[in-house]
Amino acid sequence: MTPESAAAMGERLPVLSPEQDEKLLREAGFVDVALFYAAFTFRGWVAYKA
Fold it and tell me: Domain locations in the chain?
C-alpha cells in the first residue's frame, strides 16, 4: 500500500470503536450483535434483523 492510498483510505473510511459499531447496528434494528473477527481496524460482525 502506498502512502497516498493509505491516506485516501483514512479519509474515506472512518474508524469507529467496537462500541460505536455495535451501537450503529442496534440502532439500525439488528439484535444478537456479536463480534466474530477482529484484525487491526477491521472487524466482522454477526447480527440478525429483528
Answer: 16-49
